[in-house]
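Researcher: Sit down with what I've pasted below and flag anything odd:
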Amino acid sequence: MKYPEILAFDDALRQLDQFDAIIDVRSPAEYALDHLPGAINAPVLDDAQRIQVGTMYKQVNSFEAKKVGAALVAKNIAAHIEALWLDKPREWRPLIYCWRGGNRSGSMAHILAKIGWPVAQLDGGYKAFRAHVNAALEQAPGLNFKVICGTTGSGKSRLLEVLHANGAQVLDLERLAAHRGSVLGNLPSQPQPGQKAFETAIWNTLRRFNPALPVFVESESKKVGNLRVPTALMDAMRASDCIALTLSRANRVRLLMEDYAHFTDSPASLNEQLEFLTPLHGREKIGRWQAMAVNGAMPALVEELLADHYDPAYLRSIDRNFVKYGQAFPLELEDIDSAAFQAAAWRLTAMPV
């Protein structure tokens, strides 16, 4: 075999989990937007250098730009070899890619192959990967979804976590989106990924599932925070069998107080989010809710939000959007402790496929 081996994405996909490393040599800004699952960033040009060389191409000429670019690329590759790979054995097999599988990945792949490593270079680069993800997500997933439905605070996300811990197949869109899916759902310590990175995470999760086994997923809307759920996936979920998860109002308040403790600790942040509900509920009611937050009446506020906002919205949408909800499998949680969620998870995994 002559190295570097040039791999089309379909060939690389069959081996994607077998490479010893996946190396994205694009700039840090490109990598941050999205990258192949598990890839590390070892840029041959950093963000400033990429702009510098690109400007020379346009304002001077390609020859001068290539000389400067080659010197920078050589220095950066040398630094990566010294910092990251000097301890790698001869059998170490990385997959290297850039934007289109051209000069940047070719430079890295050539040097590593000359050292003696069995290097693979992704033909078409990230662009080919992105085309594959787009095509895959435009098709129906062909999976047996079990959609967990339930009002806000009924424990859907916690149940998915327990199912996943027990080895069940779970698509947790809110975790992938870093958002809890409502106007109050942003996570203060974790920004949402970009749309492309969200779609890559979905694709990477779906590709690992066994079609013969159920996939548990929460009854999401078309958007999770600022991110859009792919249309084909949304359509498949909405046509799937449902599970009607219920929990008493008092326990739902307890659960939400635990899950949204960051708002309890920072009423100003909560009141900022409540402003978005003004067109639905009017200035007077929002002002009263904001005063409750400032005065520490959080349990009463949560209960009113459930009664006046979240529950009516849920009841308006669930039958319309999930066509099999009328025949949903009923599942009641007795409490919000771990034993209750384990019991619910066991019931679901014992259901016939």
Summary: The longest strand covers residues 144-149. The longest helix spans residues 62-85. The chain has two domains: 5-135, 141-349.
